[in-house]
Amino acid sequence: LASVTHVIGELNQNDTVTFTRNGDTVLSDSRVAYRTIWAETTYAMQTLRDNPSCAEQEHKAKQDAADPGLHAKLSYDINHDVAAPYIAKGI
User: Fold this and answer.
1) What is the sign of the dihedral through the CA atoms of 11, 14, 15 and 17?
2) Does the model's pTM come out above 0.70?
3) Of 2, 23, 47, 49, which has the highest C-beta tally within 10 A?
4) Edge-to-edge strands of the sheet including 9-11?
5) What does the pLDDT read at residue 57?
6) Taking CA 58 as the corner, what is the angle to CA 55 and CA 59, rounded to the nearest 5 degrees?
7) By the 8 A CB rule, do 26 and 7 touch?
8) 43 near 57, Cβ under 8 Å?
9) What is the DSSP secondary-structure string of 20-50?
10) How many DSSP H helices and E strands does the chain contain?
């Protein structure tokens, strides 16, 4: 596939996305800036479909690089095999 694919960008340690072509930078901006642009259509639809205040809160949260978003905090060990005690017992 190398003949039909091209590297168009690279990630770096300063939270920016840089698109290059033939070694020249074509676009470069923060990840949050690109995410905000990408989310504009979703935000517009959510404002019409859902509670506009909730849609605005979600859209603003996407623009905050420090906001971790929704994530789960597990209350159990994912490596613990809960079925192991029952396998040998035929239950």
Assistant:
1) negative
2) no
3) 47
4) 9-11, 16-21, 24-30
5) 94
6) 85
7) no
8) no
9) EETTEEEEEEEHHHHHHHHHHHHHHHHHHHS
10) 3, 3
Looking at this protein, which amino acid is placed at residue 5? T
Strands 9-11, 24-30: parallel, antiparallel or unpaired by DSSP?
unpaired
Tokens of 5: 């694919």
Q: Give the side-chain half-sphere CA count within 13 A for 52.
A: 2
Instruction: Give residue 53's identity as a one-letter amino acid code.
Output: S
Sole residue written with tokens 């949050």: 32
The residue written with tokens 């690279």 in the block is: 10
Q: Encoding tokens for residue 84?
A: 């192991």
Grouping H, G, I as helix, E, B as strand and the rest as coil, residue 85 is helix
How far does CA 4 lie from the centroid of its chain? 27
What pLDDT digit, counting tens, does each position of 50-73 carry?
A: 999 999 999 999 899 888 888 888
What length does the chain have?
Answer: 91
In this predicted model, what pLDDT tens digit does every residue of 1-47 receive, in sequence order?
889 998 766 668 898 988 888 889 898 999 999 999 999 999 999 99
